């Protein structure tokens, strides 16, 4: 999956007002999840997607630890299986122990975690120490240097519960550079989560990771920044927007600027008048678990400046997408300029798409030019859609031109938008589309002509009622009924494509 496709999915979801809990794979344009399946003993840590984010729950009554004496005897046994069972028992005893007993258990578990003869023994020791991470985090950090992956993963499970400390983060940073992809990805995930819990300092660190493709650090830092978001539960500013805006403005790494623009779009986008118009047109009602706020326009000047001046195509594209989510009319001139002049087709596409979301006619000229002359079909498609939502008489001429476009989707969209605007002068162009080779174009044209409700279209609709496509012929018959016409021939509701014998339907 390419970066652009992923970004498009994100932007499309946010533009519909959806709450996105993202898959940010490839946000930096590189990197992929490439975990390998490893045979891990029963006591080892679970794989990354099952890593607990909360401390283990207290034991149930039926899971209570065996008597201390029994666990101690087994833990010191020469039989490895017996010793492993004893260490598991001591883990339960350790939760409730105090004083000298606690110290004795702790020493046994530490010895097992660092010097156990087998990986299974060391994993059992690590899991036992996890009952009191605050007292044992240094031993757990040491365990992450074990030669066996199962032991390292077991220790990593508990490090998120360790106290704030440079030693833990330093070790996690080392592991992000591991040649073992599974461990490096897990370490990056844990490190980004720790940063996300560190307030202003953590936000700065997360912003610094944008653009770092190692272990998907860019994607995961972007996720954490988006989760932290614009406001906390009390409504106070969390400080994410200013930091990420500064990263976009001055970041030396172009991939970092691209990721910063994506994050700003996701955080600062909100419910807009154009979204409400989409909702009404679709006869739909969006329901949200939380109140969707108005767009946050603080990053608007920087997004506009970067759209105009950033040398990196992907950064300009992301800025255009973010401006569409903010949906401010102040962005229309810069977006129109991008549609006209940007050398990268994907930037022009993003700018035209963004203008669909922005009310007003500021970009009418640029979009009209794009419909007539842009070499990229996707630019023309979004330009047609944006023009149709302007609901201005000036859009009719370029939309009529678009009905003759070489791209079928452009022709279809032109018919749809003309059907919404219902201009009488579009009748000839729309009826000409009744003979279009593309079924969807013919259907859209018939629907549009139906909306005109003009007798001048009757002959063309009679011809369309004989179309080989049941979709088109049925729409034409309905249009004739709306005109009060009895013409149109036999009932073709159930006729198969190209088959006039209804007995074979």
Structural account:
- It is built from 26 helices and no strands.
- The chain is mainly α and 505 residues long.
- Among the domains are: 42-163, Leucine-rich Repeat Variant (Alpha Horseshoe); 360-504, Leucine-rich Repeat Variant (Alpha Horseshoe), CATH 1.25.10.
Q: Descriptors for this entry?
A:
mainly alpha; Leucine-rich Repeat Variant; 60% helix; 505 residues; disordered C terminus; disordered N terminus
Question: What's this model, at a glance?
Answer:
The chain has 505 residues and is mainly α. The protein has 26 helices and no strands.
- CATH topology-level fold name of the domain at 360-504: Leucine-rich Repeat Variant
> Tell me, what's the shape?
elongated
Low-confidence stretches: 1-53, 491-505
CATH superfamily of the domain at 360-504: Leucine-rich Repeat Variant
What string, H for helix and E for strand, traces the elements in order? HHHHHHHHHHHHHHHHHHHHHHHHHH
């Amino acid at each position: 999956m390419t970066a652009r496709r992923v970004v498009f999915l994100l932007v499309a979801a946010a533009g519909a007002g959806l709450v996105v809990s993202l898959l940010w794979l490839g946000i930096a344009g590189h990197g992929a999840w490439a975990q390998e399946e490893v045979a891990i003993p029963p006591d080892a840590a679970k794989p990354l997607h099952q890593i607990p984010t909360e401390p283990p729950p207290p034991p149930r009554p039926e899971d209570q630890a065996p008597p201390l004496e029994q666990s101690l005897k087994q833990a010191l046994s020469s039989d490895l299986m017996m010793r492993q069972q004893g260490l598991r028992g001591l883990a339960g005893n350790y939760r409730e122990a105090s004083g000298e007993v606690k110290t004795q258990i702790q020493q046994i578990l530490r010895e097992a975690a660092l010097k156990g003869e087998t990986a299974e023994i060391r994993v059992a020791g690590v899991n036992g120490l996890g009952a009191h991470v605050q007292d044992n985090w240094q031993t757990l950090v040491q365990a992450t240097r074990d030669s066996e992956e199962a032991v390292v993963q077991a220790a990593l499970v508990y490090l998120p519960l360790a106290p704030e400390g440079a030693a833990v983060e330093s070790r996690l940073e080392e592991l992000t550079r591991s040649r073992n992809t599974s461990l490096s990805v897990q370490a990056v995930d844990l490190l980004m989560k720790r940063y996300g819990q560190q307030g202003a300092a953590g936000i700065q660190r997360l912003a610094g990771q944008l653009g770092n493709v190692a272990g998907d650090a860019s994607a995961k830092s972007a996720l954490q920044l988006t989760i932290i978001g614009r406001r906390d539960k009390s409504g106070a500013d969390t400080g994410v927007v200013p930091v990420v805006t500064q990263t976009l403005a001055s970041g030396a790494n172009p991939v970092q600027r691209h990721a910063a623009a994506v994050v700003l779009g996701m955080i600062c986008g909100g419910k807009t008048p154009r979204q409400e118009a989409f909702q009404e047109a679709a006869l739909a009602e969006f329901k949200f678990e939380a109140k969707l706020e108005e767009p946050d326009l603080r990053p608007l000047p920087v997004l506009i400046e970067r759209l105009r001046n950033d040398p990196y195509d992907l950064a300009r594209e992301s800025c255009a997408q973010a401006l569409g989510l903010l949906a401010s009319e102040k962005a229309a001139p810069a977006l129109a300029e991008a549609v006209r002049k940007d050398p990268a087709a994907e930037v022009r596409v993003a700018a035209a798409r963004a203008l669909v979301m922005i009310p007003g006619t500021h970009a009418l000229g640029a979009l009209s030019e794009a419909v007539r002359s842009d070499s990229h079909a996707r630019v023309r498609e979004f330009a047609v859609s944006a023009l149709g939502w302007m609901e201005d008489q000036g859009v009719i001429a370029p939309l009529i031109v678009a009905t003759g476009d070489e791209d079928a989707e452009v022709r279809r969209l032109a018919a749809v938008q003309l059907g919404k605007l219902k201009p009488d002068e579009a009748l000839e162009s729309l009826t000409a589309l009744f003979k279009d080779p593309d079924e969807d174009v013919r259907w859209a044209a018939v629907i549009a002509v139906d909306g005109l409700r003009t007798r001048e279209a009757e002959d063309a609709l009679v011809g369309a009622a004989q179309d080989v496509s049941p979709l088109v012929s049925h729409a034409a018959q309905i249009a004739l009924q709306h005109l009060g016409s009895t013409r149109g021939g036999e009932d073709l509701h159930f006729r198969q494509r190209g088959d006039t014998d209804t007995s074979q339907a």
